[in-house]
Amino acid sequence: MQREFANWRAEYLARAAGQGISADTIARAKPFLTYNQKVITLDQKQPEVTQTYAQYLAATVTPARIAKAREAYRANAPLLHQLEQQYGVPGQVIVALWAKESDFGRVQGNYNILSALATLAYDGRRQELFETELTNALRMIGRGVKPEDLTGSWAGAMGQCQFMPSSYLKYAVDMSGKGYADIWGANADALASIANYLHQNGWKPDLPIVTQAALSKDFNPDWTQKKLELPVRDWQNRGVVQPSGVDASLMAATATVVQPDGMGNQAFLAYDNYRVLMRWNHSSYFALAVATLAGQINP
User: For labeling, which of 92, 139, 144, 275 is most exposed (least CB within 10 Å)?
Assistant: First the structure.
């Protein structure tokens, strides 16, 4: 195995050089491009977890996490206000994502991602994807990140905001003035990077993420299955009722009906900001949990 991996590594580094990765970066990264069998074991044995949305929410948005999120918001309030002014993203949403991704920076993963990504690029289920991410990790070294500091999850997500290398290159912000975006050790960089990601992916300051809804008996389930996007006033005409009433400013806003546990269960009207969160993590449970946690954080 080691000989075959070494051959692959040599071929890969030649390809990376052809994509503009410098000889210095390659020399610095090469000692970390090692094979890790544990990464493959984890990739092949990801657990199948079947939960209802209520169960997921109860497990991830706990009273303790809400209390920590409120404390984190208060501790970083001046920075969060600055980020809200700059990017248009509420501080509560930034903190909720920080909580969900790394428990406020506490759980970031301790795999060297050069090794993890090299392993997955050589022997994983999505080799092309992970080779691209590995090359992006090499580009991060060119931006000033030390190879030994490239730590994260076994699948390559890094830092307090759990960015893949491609997201780091696009969205990471050096708020702390270190010369590179330190999403591992600098809270300011991690929080600014979260805000920048949401902003660049279309966050709209004047919209909520979701609002609760109730569906009439004659509501057509195909409209949900097809992820139909309509103005709120049109959803009203199709039998969608918001229990707390309708905010007049939202009547023209485009929304989809989301039922995380399927027809006959809890329903929401989901706006453009929900779709931004779905680009962050393609899970309705995740997006709804972020919205719920953010709603529990009082400025």
Answer: 144
Task: Provide the whole-model pTM.
Answer: 0.94
Question: Based on the number of CB atoms within 10 Å of its own CB, is 210 exposed (0-12), middle (13-18) or buried (19 or more)?
Answer: buried
User: Nearest 10 degrees: CA dihedral of 137, 140, 144, 147?
Assistant: 0
**254: in domain:** yes
Per-residue pLDDT of the chain (299 residues; tens, 9 = 90+): 678 999 999 999 999 999 999 999 999 999 999 999 999 999 888 666 688 999 999 999 999 999 999 999 999 999 999 999 999 999 999 999 999 999 999 999 999 999 999 999 998 688 999 999 999 999 999 999 999 999 999 999 999 999 999 999 999 999 999 999 999 999 999 999 999 999 999 999 999 999 999 999 888 888 888 889 999 999 999 999 876 666 788 999 999 999 998 776 789 999 999 999 999 999 999 999 999 999 999 86
- Write the burial class of residue 143 (CB in 10 Å: 0-12 exposed, 13-18 middle, 19+ buried): middle
CB neighbourhood size of 1 (10 A): 9
Which range of residues forms the domain containing residue 248? 210-270
- Measured CA to CA, the distance from residue 141 to residue 237 in angstroms comes to 54
Residue 38 lies in a domain: no
Angle at Cα 103 formed by Cα 200 and Cα 273, nearest 5°? Answer: 30
Residue 252 lies in a domain: yes
Split into its structural domains, the chain has a count of: 1
Structure tokens at 91: 């501080």
